């Protein structure tokens, strides 16, 4: 399983994104199931606000192709702790919720365009492996 951040998702539905071709190839070539949470979908739609069609395409695809975790509300105490720990980075709610999701699922493979995932560590100090590394 790979935990999906907003960056590759945005790139998939924005043909002008510098990561678009890589995102298409990543989705096409990745056999592992992809999981994310609603905050990532909200972030992606916010960035895709240039087109309602792009937002709808993203959400419809996500509904069919992704596992969308529903445990974020229960992760709020851990999300707060992560945001506090990484307050000096541009950590945001979606990233902190992804870290908490990874911890809960014991899955440390992520797909992100954010360099912060090279810095973030789990509560047990485990590093994340970015399956969508920056070029």
Describe this protein's structure.
By secondary structure, this protein is of the alpha/beta class. It has a single domain (2-130), classed as Rossmann fold, CATH 3.40.50.1010. It has helices spanning 6-13, 20-29, 38-47, 52-65, 76-85, 93-105; strands spanning 2-4, 34-37, 67-69, 109-111, 129-130. α1 packs across α2 and α3 (38-47) packs antiparallel against α4. The longest helix has 14 residues, at 52-65. The protein is globular, with a radius of gyration of 14 Å. The chain starts with a strand and ends in a 5-residue tail after the last strand. The model has no long low-confidence stretch (mean pLDDT 94).
Class computed from helices, strands and strand pairing: alpha/beta
Largest sheet: 5 strands, parallel
Q: Low-confidence parts, pLDDT < 50 over ≥5 residues? A: none
Percent of residues in β-strands: 5-15%
Looking at this structure, what is the CATH superfamily? 5'-nuclease
Average predicted confidence as pLDDT: 94
Total strands: 5
SSE ordering:
EHHEHHEHHEE
Number of helices: 6
What is the radius of gyration? Answer: 14 Å
- Side by side, the strands of the main sheet go 3-2-1-4-5
Overall geometry comes to globular
CATH topology: the name is Rossmann fold
Brief sketch in words of this structure:
By secondary structure, the protein is α/β, with parallel strands linked by helices.
Topology summary:
Blueprint: E1 2-4, H1 6-13, H2 20-29, E2 34-37, H3 38-47, H4 52-65, E3 67-69, H5 76-85, H6 93-105, E4 109-111, E5 129-130
Parallel strand pairs: 1-2, 1-4, 2-3, 4-5
